Structures are given as structure tokens and as C-alpha cells.
């Protein structure tokens, strides 16, 4: 049975049941359904280091300092960047356990037994979880999966690579008249491509042939993975039910409203969204 973070913090005397109930109430009313640990931190009820210590002691799992740890490329290939962001985990290294391989996995929430079981089934490896803070996990994902975490210039992609235009490449003035958003592929097989969501229209992504933006090289994407819809007053992201899910920033979502600067993750692909002026 999964030990819940709230229960562990109460048992350790860090928080009261009343504080946990308040955090759960805040979580229920949040638009994007953040994880309980994130809500607790947002409310200033405790710190990441305290949560890390409680999890490590209660679950008898060693903590890992990801700032001074470099995951191996072999390990990173076992989990896609969108999966890593969705579950706040990062593979660290592969080891041998008898005749089987073992995947050492840093997790912000090692109480998620279902995730561990699913990963063991998917990889065929024994998963050895380690505990880390959510901040360190996010930073490690950004660093080692080469995910951009700051705004990029419109003229170039990370590393100075020129953008590859798909379809017409309108200038800035004409773009703002016909498009609601600029969509920049910043990671994955189609890195460097740019696409446009036209005002009042929709655009779907996947690796199949019957989508407007096809990325066949990303085998972790579904054939039709997600769609963006411009509803006039807002742009909405809709996950189309793929196995690996769709990630908005660090959270797996089924449906969400997009803001300028958001990052959408699907399979190995990450897309930066820039909303354009409608004037």
C-alpha cells in the first residue's frame, strides 16, 4: 500500500492534520492539480530539505545529491523527458543485480509505487528508487536532457542552430495578423522546426500521417498525440489519450489553458509556445 506524503509528514511531527487538510483543499481548487508536496511548499508549511529527510527516513531510502551527480546516457534513454517531467524523476545509472539489470532512479515522490511497478514492467529492470528534492530533479532534467529553461531569441534555437520553417514562413507583422501562436520545437527529432496556430483554428501533433504536424521520428509519441485549439479568448491544449501522456511544463495534463512561454512535452518532443498579439 502506498504511504502518502501527508501521512508521513504528520507521523514525523512536521505538520498537523489540520495543515494537511488545508493543503489538500488548496490542491482540489487549483487549476492544474499540483502535487501535494508542491502545494505544501507554496503555502510555506515546510521546506524541501525537511520533506527529503522525512521521506528518506520513513521509507528507508538513501537521498541523492543530483547537483553533483551526472546521470549516464544509457540510463536517460530508459525514460523520455516528458515522462521525467510528469513524474518528477530522472534515471541515474544502470547496475547489475544478479542476472538482471537494475535502474537507479532519483524521485521526488518515491511513495509512488505504481510508477515504480510500471517502469519495472516497461524496462524489464529492477528499479532502485532514491530520494531527491523536486527542485533538484527539475534542474537535473533540464540539464541532462538538454531542456531549455529560459526564453530563446526568435532568430535562433539553442546552440545557435537556425530554425527550420515548416510551410510558409511569414514575417512578424503578417504572422500577428493570421496566427494566434508560434510553436517552436526545442527538443526531440524535429528540433528547430516552427509551426503556427492560426487564429480561430486548431493544430494537432503526433507521429502518424493524418495529423497537421507529423513527427514520425519520435517513437514515444502517439500517432495523434495532442491538439491545440484557439478559442478566441484562450488557447487550449487537449491530450488525445496517448499512452505516454502530454506534459505542460512539469505536469501531466489532459486539458489545460496555454500561456505564453509554456512548454508542451509529448514523447521526446518539447515545444515552446509563444502567444502572438491579436491587435
Short descriptors:
279 residues; alpha+beta; GMP Synthetase, Chain A, domain 3; Tumour Suppressor Smad4; 5-stranded mixed beta sheet; 9 helices; 28% strand
Give an account of the 3D structure.
The protein is of the alpha+beta class. The protein has three domains: 5-55, no CATH class; 73-144, GMP Synthetase, Chain A, domain 3, CATH 3.30.300.160; 179-275, Tumour Suppressor Smad4. 28% of the residues lie in helices and 28% in strands. The strands form three sheets. Strands 4-6-5-15-14-11-12 form a seven-stranded mixed beta sheet.
Write a short abstract of this structure.
By secondary structure, this protein is α+β, with helices and mostly antiparallel strands.
Q: What structural class should be given to the helix and strand makeup?
A: alpha+beta
Do you know the CATH topology of the largest domain? Answer: Tumour Suppressor Smad4
**Mean pLDDT value:** 82
State the helix count: 9
Number of domains: 3
Assign the CATH class of the largest domain: Mainly Beta
CATH-scheme architecture of the largest domain? Sandwich
Report the uncertain regions.
148-177
Largest sheet: 7 strands, mixed
**What form results from the Cα inertia axes?**
globular
Beta-strand fraction estimate: 25-35%
Instruction: Give the % helix.
Output: 25-40%
Give the radius of gyration.
20 Å
Amino acid at each position: 500500500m502506498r504511504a502518502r506524503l501527508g501521512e508521513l509528514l504528520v507521523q514525523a511531527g512536521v505538520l498537523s492534520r489540520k495543515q494537511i487538510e488545508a493543503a489538500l483543499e488548496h490542491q482540489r481548487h487549483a487549476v492544474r492539480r499540483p502535487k501535494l508536496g508542491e502545494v505544501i511548499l507554496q503555502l510555506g508549511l515546510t521546506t524541501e530539505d525537511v520533506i527529503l529527510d522525512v521521506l528518506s527516513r520513513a521509507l528507508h531510502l538513501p537521498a541523492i545529491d543530483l547537483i553533483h551527480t551526472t546521470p549516464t546516457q544509457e540510463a536517460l534513454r530508459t525514460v523520455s523527458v516528458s515522462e521525467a517531467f510528469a513524474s518528477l524523476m530522472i534515471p541515474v545509472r544502470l547496475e547489475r543485480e544478479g542476472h538482471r539489470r537494475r535502474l537507479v532512479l532519483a524521485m521526488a515522490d518515491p511513495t509512488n509505487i505504481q510508477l515504480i511497478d510500471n517502469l519495472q514492467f516497461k524496462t524489464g529492470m529492477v528499479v532502485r528508487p532514491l530520494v531527491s528534492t523536486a527542485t533538484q530533479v527539475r534542474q537535473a532534467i533540464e540539464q541532462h536532457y538538454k531542456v531549455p529553461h529560459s526564453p530563446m531569441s526568435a532568430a535562433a534555437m539553442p546552440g545557435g542552430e537556425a530554425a527550420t520553417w515548416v510551410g510558409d514562413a511569414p514575417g512578424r507583422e503578417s504572422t500577428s495578423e493570421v496566427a494566434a501562436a508560434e510553436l517552436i520545437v526545442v527538443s526531440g527529432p524535429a528540433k528547430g522546426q516552427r509551426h503556427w496556430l492560426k487564429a480561430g483554428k486548431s493544430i494537432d501533433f503526433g507521429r502518424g500521417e493524418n495529423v497537421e504536424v507529423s513527427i514520425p521520428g519520435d517513437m514515444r509519441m502517439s500517432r495523434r498525440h495532442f491538439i491545440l485549439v484557439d478559442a478566441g479568448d484562450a488557447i487550449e491544449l487537449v491530450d488525445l489519450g496517448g499512452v505516454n501522456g502530454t506534459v505542460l511544463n512539469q505536469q501531466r495534463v489532459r486539458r489545460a489553458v496555454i500561456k505564453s512561454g509554456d512548454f508542451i512535452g509529448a514523447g521526446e518532443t518539447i515545444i515552446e509556445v509563444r502567444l502572438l498579439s491579436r491587435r
